[in-house]
Specification:
This protein is an alpha+beta fold. The protein is built from 3 helices and 2 strands. Strands 1-2 form a two-stranded antiparallel sheet. The protein starts with 10 loop residues before the first strand and ends with a helix. 0% of the residues are buried. The mean pLDDT is 87.
Length: 70
Amino acid sequence: MLRLKWIRPAESIEVRFGTSRAGAVDVALYTTASVDALAARTDIDWQQLRSVEKGRRSPLAALAKQAALA
């Protein structure tokens, strides 16, 4: 969904684990409005996405590939 640019983080923060920077990771934060807008999309078959088994390719992968070629 990020590759399709359907949602973008509002900001990113650094979260540290432990006392060294070696344990730091960036965490993307999204607004409630952007998540709600994504959930309201009628062109996404949410049931199909939820039923994708572990290790299987998401149906959204084909859309991302098409978007990259456009």
